[in-house]
Specification:
single chain; alpha/beta; FAD/NAD(P)-binding domain; Flavocytochrome C3, Chain A, domain 1; 2 domains; 9-stranded mixed beta sheet; 6-stranded mixed beta sheet; 13 helices; binds flavin-adenine dinucleotide
Length: about 500
């Protein structure tokens, strides 16, 4: 090991949104802050740089006005007609609904009550938002980060550098250092110059989860997960979780489930932050308006049991379970006429044909008669009602007597040309993490007491998500608990 030791009041591991939020908060307490980041400067930003939006509580125009620049009150009122509010009670219910009431109540309480405060605090750090999806068809959440997560992270880096934070790139945390009391006093890291010791009065772990580690995916998520493609950066290999578990940190939340959604079959093995600027998106989230079939021509899931933002994160798992881990989203000409395709379907891997038989051949569906029968049975089972592709409201136009049922957004598949989009499971991040005290983000020991000097936030903090997730929640939780971690880490360091 190099005899060179670098010291900070607060050392933060990782440079994603949770880490940057922790750094802003630690600076407010006048701490000397250092960040070590595994990626190079050119590849910095983490999964956070690939995101679009946050899910937060708002009660009306007055809560979002300060977040959005260059938009008039009238334009915002038009936006609010689609989604007038998301109250604390509504956000709580949504998260309990998607997690089957298994979200950690104490964590969720803080997440819900702090989300508006936190987003307004982010605005005070120079961030701003734009109306989601323009005024024609807003996304699942009402606002998008200006420049997406990439813009958010670029602003974070600029401000933190100006405010005196030192970044060490290409520096991977390997192990935690403890004193005789068991307090964490630093991190041993691998740098381009060799192994370096970083000491600190407090350490904030914000270096993501294990989604980029095939061995851990297989170990915790099960067979088949080792070879899947991830949607994000290749750097989140579970290092922070491993080194924290090694010193007795308490695991928390769901280690066998994760966020995984339908992605274009050509999704690369991983993606780096700069890709955000090319605007190439592999997300294939038209499935609530389609039927999804496997290579056998069978449907396998209710495509529209709930709003898209409350189902997409569990759809990847059901696609992975199909033969070859592939499925096809099937729509007919009506969807084009209604103009309900998101623009990213312009570059989707796709087949188009005048007949269902020809479409099946082009897609590689093996059992064509079965596929035709699946479509016929679906068409016959659709109940009367009006199709309405509103992303904030279920339309109730479902099937009867069909297994699996399709609960909403049923459009018959009978008018050519027909279109099919092959999709695969794209994994986003893992739900399992460490147990933290939600009040101060301090990591808890299996012995039932806090680990002195150790804090965690972002994907590393477990408990909020179980089996499923509501879109826009990861960035919100990362900012909320990152801020809490940075503030308490700094207060403890400067005591
Ligand atoms: C394509 C995509 C789109 C998404 N869209 C959204 C969205 O719109 N809204 C939303 O809320 N969520 C979204 N998510 C989820 C969201 O990205 C995560 O919930 C969030 O970014 C987690 O933040 P984080 O700071 O914990 O992790 P990250 O942003 O991933 O940061 C972790 C950092 O730690 C670094 N690191 C890893 N190991 C080490 C080590 N040993 N030493 C030092 N550094 C290390 C990594 O390089 C990385 O920079 C999306 C994810 C993806 C992949």
């Amino acid at each position: 090991m190099s005899d060179h030791t670098i010291h900070y009041d607060v050392l933060i591991v990782g440079a994603g949104n949770a880490a940057c939020s922790a750094a802003h908060a630690a600076l407010e307490k006048n701490a000397r802050v250092g960040i070590i980041e595994k990626a190079s400067k050119g590849n910095r930003g983490g999964n956070s740089a690939l995101t679009g939006h946050m899910r937060f509580v708002f009660n009306g125009l007055e809560d979002i006005r300060a977040l959005v620049k260059n938009t008039t009150d009238d334009e915002l009122r038009t936006l609010l007609e689609r989604m007038p509010h998301r109250t604390e009670a509504e956000l709580w219910d949504e998260i309990m609904r998607v997690t089957n009431n298994q979200s950690d109540e104490e964590m969720l309480q803080v997440h819900v009550t702090e989300s508006l405060n936190t987003i307004q605090w982010l605005a005070s750090k120079g961030h701003d938002w734009t109306p989601a999806g323009g005024f024609k068809m807003p996304g699942d959440n009402i606002l998008l980060m200006n420049g997406g997560g990439y813009g958010l992270q670029q602003r974070n880096f600029t401000k933190l550098e100006q405010d005196g934070v030192t970044f060490h790139y290409e520096t991977s945390a390997l192990d935690l250092i403890q004193d005789d009391r068991g307090h964490v006093t630093g991190v041993v890291a691998l740098t381009p110059k060799g192994i370096v010791k970083f000491t600190a009065k407090s350490v904030v772990m914000a270096c993501g989860s294990f989604e980029a580690n095939p061995e851990m995916r297989a170990r915790y998520l099960g067979p088949g997960w080792d070879t899947i493609h991830i949607r994000g950066v290749p750097f989140n290999t579970g290092d922070g979780l491993r080194m924290s578990l090694n010193i007795g940190a308490m695991p928390h939340g769901s280690w066998t489930t994760c966020h995984a959604s339908p992605q274009d079959v050509c999704l690369p093995k991983f993606t780096i932050p700069i890709s955000y600027t090319t605007k190439k998106s592999y997300a294939r989230y038209m499935y609530p308006y389609s039927i999804m079939v496997n290579t056998n021509g069978d449907r396998f899931i209710d495509e529209a049991e709930d709003l898209r933002g409350r189902t997409y994160a569990r759809m990847g798992r059901s696609i992975l379970a199909q033969p070859g881990g592939v499925a096809f989203q099937i729509l007919d000409a009506k969807a084009r006429k209604m103009d309900i395709y998101p623009t990213n379907y312009d570059t989707a891997t796709a087949s188009k044909a005048d007949t269902l038989e020809k479409l099946a051949v082009e897609l590689g569906i093996v059992n064509i008669p079965n596929f035709i029968e699946t479509v016929r049975n679906y068409n016959t089972a659709i109940q009367p009602g009006t199709f309405n592709p509103d992303r904030h409201k279920l339309d109730g136009k479902g099937t009867a007597g069909l297994t699996p049922r399709k609960s909403n957004y049923c459009l018959s598949i009978e008018d050519g040309p027909f279109e099919g989009f092959p999709v695969r499971c794209g994994m986003t991040f893992c739900f399992g993490g460490l147990k933290i005290d939600p009040a101060n983000a301090q990591v808890q020991h299996v012995a039932g007491r806090p680990i002195g000097g150790l804090y965690a936030a972002g994907e590393m903090a477990g408990g909020l998500w179980v089996g499923n997730y509501a879109s826009g929640s990861g960035m919100m939780a990362g900012a909320t608990f990152g801020r809490i971690a940075g503030m308490h880490a700094a207060m403890a360091a400067l005591q």
